[in-house]
Amino acid sequence: MSLTKAEAMGLKHSEWIDKTLRYYWYLIFIAIVAEIFALTVTLIMSPSEFWDDVLPVLVYPTVAQVILLLITTVIYKKKITENEYILMVVGSLLAFILIAANTSLAGAPLILLLPMMISILFFNKNVVIFSYLVNVIAYLVTIALFPDLGEYLRIYEFIAYIYIFSAGFIILLAVQERSDEVIELLRKKVDQEQELMVRNTIMERLSKVDAPTGLYNHKTFQEYLAYLFEQSSTSSYRFQLAMLDIDNFKQVNDTYGHAVGDKILERIAGIIQANVDANDIASRYGGEEFGVLFTDCSFETALHVVETIRLEIERLPHEEMGGRNVTVSIGLVEYTDEEQAPVLFEKADTLLYLAKKNGKNRIETEIQ
């Protein structure tokens, strides 16, 4: 299973095209160095042959390769195409030029193995097959066009080259198949990790959230309260704590049933969640009681928010109760250097029950 075009694009496809072009430039440079070295040896050993070889062996093929690669580089840099098959053809043409310039060199056709090897960089079996076919055709063309090359090849050597190309092709296919296995293994590994991450996220959320209301649960609320208390006790950071309790909720359950009570809890939780800030912690503390930690606002702002919540709850009719509404009583305090978190919570709870005592559907604070 080879990579699709879209998947290949995702593996920095353009970047690898640029790298392949750069590799081609490296090969041209190496070929120039090799030709210069060979010509230097020729100059020492047979000076008369040196000048006959400079143009056909060094200058002409180098110019042809540079022009071809410059045109190809411009095409890809301008994003005219990002087709890797064209790149394989260019690699075969570069090799063909070198072979044409060195027909008397034993083993020159083996240069065609280089673009075949580069084809594996794109993780696509079709590209490997295409490169193999193009290079076999290039080899056959060189035999047909350059009789000098054919003179050095007996039928057994011709078959041997075809065998070498085919053997290289089979090895590249094996490498591609192995790459496919690795890719598939990585895919499964990523899928498993993502599935585990999602499961852990869900489990973590379930452990923190009260299912009926979608707010944080009692345990999580206490953890956040302890954390905020710790932070505030070592700095000038301030926060507010509000405790809300539904008035006469037992009567609602007894009269209309627990199913109706659950719907009312859910609606009130929705009102609370809609009014608090993203930095605030809203929770169902237990039964019909809710808690809110305001972490990034003034006491006046917190008071305004809980008053808005109280009014919206009071004005919300419930069809299950014949259009009647429910109310909440609220106690609101601000952290003021209390030594322990339970002390602050006890203050809020005391104010909550004071609101109940003073007529319900109201807010009580330490600031009058």
UniProtKB/TrEMBL annotation:
GO terms for biological process: cell adhesion involved in single-species biofilm formation; negative regulation of bacterial-type flagellum-dependent cell motility. CDD domains: GGDEF. This is Diguanylate cyclase. InterPro entries: Diguanylate_Cyclase, GGDEF_dom, Nucleotide_cyclase, Rev_trsase/Diguanyl_cyclase. One of its GO terms (cellular component) is plasma membrane. Residues 237-368 form the GGDEF domain. Keywords: Membrane, Transmembrane, Transmembrane helix. Pfam families: GGDEF (PF00990). The chain crosses the membrane at residues 21-45, 57-76, 88-121, 127-146, 158-175. GO terms for molecular function: diguanylate cyclase activity. It comes from Bacillus selenitireducens (strain ATCC 700615 / DSM 15326 / MLS10).
